[in-house]
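wait is this the right file?? whatever heres the structure
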């Protein structure tokens, strides 16, 4: 099944359940956990349309001091390379740093 919005998945889960599909079958079809499907099925109709993922609009994400320092060091490394902060480059750096950490500490 193609990637669709969360709200559409919720609606689809309700429709499939009305057709007597099992929760496990719905979760496989929608590529979602069974726990998510159960939560969606228990939502009232007016709650189906609300997207409550993440945090409130206008509220900043809270990071630990360690995470903040890690983000700052990655940004500095990208600036040194004179590269833009694209997701792919950032991911490559994060993976590289994690691999270095794993092999330094030993498996």
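ok assuming it is, sequence goes like this
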């Amino acid at each position: 099944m193609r990637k669709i919005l969360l709200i559409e998945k919720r609606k689809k889960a309700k429709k499939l359940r009305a057709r007597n599909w099992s929760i496990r079958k719905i979760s496989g079809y929608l590529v979602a956990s069974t726990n998510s499907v159960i939560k969606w099925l228990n939502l009232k109709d007016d709650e189906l349309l609300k997207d409550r993922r993440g945090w409130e609009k206008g509220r900043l994400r809270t990071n630990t001091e360690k995470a903040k320092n890690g983000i700052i060091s990655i940004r500095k490394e990208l600036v040194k390379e004179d590269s833009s902060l694209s997701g792919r480059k950032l991911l490559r750096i994060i993976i590289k740093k994690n691999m270095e950490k794993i092999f330094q500490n030993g498996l």
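The first helix runs from residue 6 to 18. so i think its the right one actually
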